[in-house]
Amino acid sequence: MTQRFDSVAGVLAAVGLDLGVTEWMPLTQDRINRFADATDDHQWIHVDEARAAQGPFGGCIAHGYLTLSLASKFLPELVTYDRLKMGVNYGCERVRFPSPVRAGSRIRGHGEVVAAEEVKGGGAQVTVRITVEIEGGDKPACVVDTISRLYFE
């Protein structure tokens, strides 16, 4: 279930809150190939299925930055801000890629509010840790602390 906040006070009070998990989504070879085209990163471990099958991962794997970019898909599935005038991505901290994601795997996002503070202009800066989990995996694919600035009505 998506958590909802409608004020700076609500965001500040949410530190430590587990936001739950998203639905599982497949990370397909087609998505990996399209990401390779968009970023001009056609390294064989991502796009050459025959060669990758003989490589260290036993098949193609997603780009780390593709996995990271999916935080922007998972975040609004975990948390919604009502009465928001403006929200901006402020950055990321502590990005890690503990485990590769094989093409065809299913992944999901798990969220936790790890920090929040009031910022100049009457807004809040919130840090949400997104852990990208791999179905059946013992380590996450990606862990990133996303930082957003929020201004409410």
What's the gist of this structure?
With 153 residues, this protein is α+β, with helices and mostly antiparallel strands. 25% of the residues lie in helices and 41% in strands.
Describe the structure.
The protein is α+β, with helices and mostly antiparallel strands and 153 residues long. The protein has a single domain (3-152), classed as Thiol Ester Dehydrase, Chain A, CATH 3.10.129. 25% of the residues lie in helices and 41% in strands. It contains six helices and eight strands; from the N terminus they run βαββαααααβββββ. Strands 2, 3, 5, 6, 7 and 8 form a six-stranded antiparallel beta sheet that branches. Strand 7 (123-134) and strand 8 form a beta hairpin. It is elongated and about 55 Å long. The mean pLDDT is 97.
Overall structural class, as computed from helix and strand content, comes to alpha+beta
CATH-scheme architecture: Roll
Largest sheet: 6 strands, antiparallel
Any idea how many domains? Answer: 1
Mean pLDDT: 97
Beta-strand segment tally? 8
Q: Which bin fits the share of residues in helices? A: 25-40%
Number of helices: 6
> How far apart are the termini?
24 Å
Relative strand content: 35-45%
- What's the helix-strand series? EHEEHHHHHEEEEE
The low-pLDDT segments are none
Overall 3D geometry? elongated
**What is the oligomer described by this structure?**
single chain
Rg over CA atoms, rounded to whole Å, is: 17 Å
CATH top-level class: Alpha Beta
